[in-house]
Write the structure tokens for this entry.
Amino acid sequence: MLSKGVAQFAGKRVLLLQGPVGPFFHRLATDLRAAGASVYKVNFNAGDWLFYPRGAIAYRGTMDEWPAWFDDLLQRLGVDVVMLFGDCRPIHRVAHAVATRHGLEIGVFEEGYIRPDYITLEVCGVNGFSRMSRSPEFYCREAPPTPHTRPVGRTYWYMVWYGFGYFTMGSLGRPWFRHYQHHRPMSLLEAVPWLRSVWRKLRYGWQERGIEQRLIGELSGHFYLVPLQVFNDSQVTVHAKVVDIPSFIQDVLRSFAAHGPAESVLVFKHHPMDRGYCDYTHLITRLADELGVAERVLYIHDQHLPSLLDHTRGVVLINSTVGLSALLHGAATKVCGNALYDMPGLTYQGPLDDFWAAAPDARPNEGLFRRFRAHLIEYTQLNGSFYKPLPLPGSRAGLVWRGGDKGVAVIMPKFVAGGRVR
């Protein structure tokens, strides 16, 4: 889906379902139409309507009615391509199955595997459902050239305001979409975690001053980093081998207490997008006390991740894309879930209990990772952001597409009357 650029959609009928929070799908629709595509959109709640208010089809039925309704819509519109954000949402899992039965091309967007300057677009599925090979031998071939990356810049406040607007409007507009069931809570109360997140970011910045200097200084090479994930992320609820984040924390702490080197420290890092929802301070403190390792356990929030990865002894995670960053920094990595980068030569393949001692000798193969990362960018990543478009001529979505067979980065082409490329 990425190899031929945006021009591949000329003459096709593209149906957009739910997109990321914000106006990205509206901007993408503009670019697709400029490329010569016919674009349709389905809104499922008032939050969708806020960012795509005109020309969309409103679905107000139940989940039981959705498969037949969607099937009929595909046939009435003569759809060629279905695009959606996240393939684990209930409405999207149903739509994916129906579209597959019709033999349609399905483009799945997701947050970038390579961050912060990329978004993910794969045919069929992402993350645990990705079709990327899990065999190291596959990546022994020559790697495709890595295109020049245009930096996106900071997007945090864009996400905050889009999220606030989406959930507020979704809650206020519930009477017009009374059957809709969101994959996450949707009410006016959702504004509270977003506001709490801002406050906690400021508070943690003050409380945890000096911790990063300690980790990259006296504790350099002596601490294990455990990046936590958003509690209701599909990576945890669908693609993980653990029940939830608290049980993962408990498993890691128990293993570390029993097998971690006596001079080492365990560092849990909270996910920034989960800051307003969860706080594991009490859980981690209680378990560390019970296991007798309270002096060797830290719980941190907003320290500079690349610096920590440069100085960690090893990384333990469920299946977060932080694992790719860890491999980029040459850190030994143990995956406890289903991750597309979990393969021999990149990640530690033994049990967690053995990882603590094995970590110094379990660093990833640099050549294998370089080739794997190049394939990942070539076949699954678009330079850009869902929340802050790159300033590119002729593009509202601000994405850098690649065209042709060589994988060269090009700006989206401009189309003039008659659909000809200029």
About this structure: Confidence is low (pLDDT under 50) at residues 404-422.
